[in-house]
């Protein structure tokens, strides 16, 4: 948009000054982020959502990239805000290691382009075995307040699992 020079400014009239200020205020502006995505850690099979929002004139278009390429997959859903100021990138179900990456939100309009990156870390699913479990051996380790490490043995389908595990609601999880 062309901004007038307001040649009549030497004649101090409130109407002319107000008109010039309104025309200057209507100038195009580059994108500026108002909300940026934050790094997340999810579990395989779960969901991750990233939010990105920007202002500018004309209103910036938001695009999501993974490893430099626009996201496109049935598991990747881009949900635009009703007012068009931003969007949510939703990934479901999460897969490890292929979803673990740097994601980028790009906001662009005719005046400029900006981007911000965020990291998604995907942990493998926690496997749990319900039922009876028994301690294999208890090992005391040095640390503040006498930390205790327990080693368990579990027999599942003719396979033994031995290692450091956690107990959740009576089930052995690894």
Automatic annotation (TrEMBL):
Q: Identify the Pfam families for this entry.
A: I-set
Q: Which SMART domains match?
A: IG, IGc2
Q: Which PROSITE patterns match?
A: IG_LIKE
The entry's keywords: Immunoglobulin domain, Signal
| Chain ranges of the Ig-like domain | 31-121
Leader sequence segment: 1-27
Alphabetical list of PANTHER family matching this protein: BASIGIN RELATED, CELL ADHESION MOLECULE DSCAM2-RELATED
Looking at the record's lineage, which domain of life comes first?
A: Eukaryota
What this protein is called in its record is Receptor-type tyrosine-protein phosphatase delta-like
Membrane: is it a keyword of this entry? no
InterPro entries linked to this entry:
Ig-like_dom, Ig-like_dom_sf, Ig-like_fold, Ig_I-set, Ig_sub, Ig_sub2
> What's the gene?
LOC111940729
Does the entry feature the keyword RNA-binding, yes or no?
Answer: no
């Amino acid at each position: 948009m062309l901004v007038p020079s307001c040649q009549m400014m030497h004649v101090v009239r409130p109407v002319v000054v107000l008109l010039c200020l309104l025309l200057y205020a209507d100038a195009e502006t580059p994108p500026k982020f108002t909300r940026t995505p934050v790094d997340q850690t999810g579990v395989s099979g779960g969901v991750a959502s990233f939010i990105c929002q920007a202002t500018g004139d004309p209103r910036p278009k938001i695009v999501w990239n993974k490893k430099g390429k626009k996201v496109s997959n049935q598991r990747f859903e881009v949900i635009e805000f009703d007012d068009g100021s931003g969007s949510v990138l939703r990934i479901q179900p999460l897969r490890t290691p292929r979803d673990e990456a740097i994601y980028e939100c790009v906001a662009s309009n005719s005046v400029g382009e900006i981007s911000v990156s965020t990291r998604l870390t995907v942990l493998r699913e926690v496997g749990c075995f319900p039922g009876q479990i028994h301690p294999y051996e208890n090992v005391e380790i040095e640390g503040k307040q006498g930390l205790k490490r327990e080693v368990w043995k579990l027999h599942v389908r003719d396979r033994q699992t031995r290692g450091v595990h956690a107990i959740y609601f009576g089930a052995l999880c690894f």
